[in-house]
Design brief:
mainly beta, Lipoprotein, signal
């Protein structure tokens, strides 16, 4: 059913030892009398170091602890610009590996947007953007038993991320600890052109604490979509609501001024 969009320098001073001459004990020190030794800079402690068994003991971890680990272990397609796939990393001594594997769900969701027709439903508009409805459906799910013992890549579903995707269709990738996401854990709102986090990622609010990471691919032109999610015009002919002129003085809005700067006019004596 459609719902509404919206990571000391220790200095050792060793006193020089003099010979048996008493006067030399109180004289000026020789250049070799004082030594300065720098200790090696300690390496940072990895967040999940391995123990004597060669793994990091995660027995009894809470959901929150598992989520925090998965956040470090997984790279979303935008983060993994080398291939564009989703990748589970393997960094021995840094990510573990873990002694006990964690069940992770990788799910791809199709979002179909349509402009709200105003007949009902909650309003998301802030007065500058139109309201959109979206329908969300799971397209692909991959269950991963993750422990960082080896790398694994998961390809994106081509049908959902194709270049010729409908301008009314968006995609949502979720990485969740435990079981697949339930409908009551999905976001109520997925805004178009909404706020972004410090990584320039579109913000999505889930109703679950099990979501370790996500990535939203917005529809390219929801402003041309009918309430049922079908394009009704060429996106090139209908600019997005936030589009503004880039030319501060477009010639079709403001006529070019016509002034005559005649030197004789400027220097001419006033007419009596």
């Amino acid at each position: 059913m459609p719902v509404v969009a919206a990571l000391s320098l220790a200095v050792l001073f060793s006193a020089g030892c003099s010979g048996g001459d008493d006067t030399s004990a109180y004289g000026e020190p020789t250049p070799s009398a004082t030594e300065v030794t720098e200790s090696p800079t300690p390496s940072p402690t990895p967040p999940y170091p391995t123990d004597a068994s060669g793994c990091h003991d995660n027995k009894g971890w809470t959901t929150a602890e598992s989520v925090d680990w998965v956040k470090l272990d997984v790279d979303t397609p935008k983060q993994n610009s080398g291939s564009g796939d989703l990748e589970f990393s393997s960094i021995p001594g840094y990510l573990g590996p873990l002694c006990h594997k964690i069940t992770v769900q990788v799910e791809f969701w199709k979002l179909v947007y349509g402009v709200a027709d105003g007949d009902g439903g909650e309003s998301l508009s802030d007065g500058t953007r139109p309201d959109y409805y979206f329908d969300i459906r799971r397209v692909k799910r991959v269950e991963v038993r993750a422990d960082a013992a080896g790398e694994r890549r998961i390809a994106l579903p081509k049908s959902l991320y194709s270049d010729d995707r409908s301008p009314c269709v968006g995609a949502l990738l979720t990485i969740t600890v435990g079981k697949p996401l339930k409908s009551k854990e999905l976001p109520k709102e997925v805004e178009v052109g909404g706020s972004q986090d410090v990584w320039d990622r579109e913000t999505v609010e889930f109703r679950s604490e099990r979501v370790a990471d996500y990535e939203l691919s917005e529809p390219s032109a929801p402003q041309v979509c009918s309430p049922d999610g079908r394009p009704t015009a060429d996106p090139a002919d209908v600019p997005p609501p936030s589009a503004e002129p880039t030319d501060l003085f477009p010639t079709d809005l403001y006529p070019s001024p016509s002034y005559s700067w005649d030197l004789d006019d400027i220097l001419r004596s006033p007419t009596p």
